[in-house]
Amino acid sequence: MQMQHEQTHEQIIEALQRQVDELTKANLVLKEQLARKEQFTAMIAHELRGPLAPIINYAQMIARPNQRPETVKRGTSIIISQAHRLTRLVKDLLDATHLTFNQFSLTCAECDIVTLAKEVVEQLRPLAPYHQIVLETPDSPVVGDWDSGRLQQALGNLLDNAMKYSDEGSTITVYVSASDDMAHVSVHNQGAGIPSAEIHQLFRPYVRLQGTSGRQGSGLGLYITKSIIEAHEGSLRLELPSPERQGTTFSFDLPL
Questions:
Q1: Is 60 a residue whose pLDDT tops 80?
Q2: Backbone region of residue 135 per phi and psi (left: phi > 0; alpha: psi in -120 to 50; beta: other values)
Q3: How far apart are CA 35 and CA 27, in angstroms?
Q4: DSSP one-letter string for 156-168
Q5: Spatial CA neighbour of 189 closest among 140, 124, 112, 119
Q6: What Å distances lie between residue 153 and 93, 138, 226, CA to CA?
Q7: Whole-prediction pTM
Q8: What is the spatial distance between Cα 7 and Cα 235, in angstroms, rounded to a whole number?
Q9: 115: Cβ–Cβ under 8 A, 6 or more apart, which residues?
Q10: What is the pLDDT of residues 90-100, one digit of tens each?
């Protein structure tokens, strides 16, 4: 009887210890999440200031009397481009919440990815005056049943990344092509490649690579882009560099 009592006592102690270990582990996870949330809040504040500053500056410039037409035209282009960038950031934030609660959805209709790519490139071109942005597309439309707004968001994120992580004076190339049952889109920049040890972290939310510490960002762009492409039953990937094609290339396929 005493032996059974001792075994029961030991089992209770072991059960309590397991609970303590689990609570300690959960507490560490919560602390890490809180620290990441605070860091993320600071990054978002910086990201929001990024587009807002030129919007305000160029709006003030345009408002001055006797401005030359070319100054007004350029200022207007910058304001519109930065507003699109701000809209994408807000969508990324909302979509991150929707994904957390499994509320992410698409509104699909007939969409030409060639026209869409041209529109996105023209929206962002004023933000990269010292980059050369090259667009290579087929002569004929590539049409699928897709969510146009989401794909603009996805391609815009990839172009934002390409501009952010490549030097001024370099070339960014957007390719669009199609096979019998797939549309193919890729964005290539001539910046430094991504270390193989960090590739597994690319598509995680709120995570920024160690090598990008000098670049500000929310850490959401690739995560949201991957979610958008996969919601279309497509795939997003990082292409391996080759001796003929150095830099970084992200590609995605969409079923036609």
A1: yes
A2: beta
A3: 12
A4: HHHHHHHHHTS-T
A5: 124
A6: 12, 22, 11
A7: 0.76
A8: 55
A9: 141
A10: 888 888 778 87
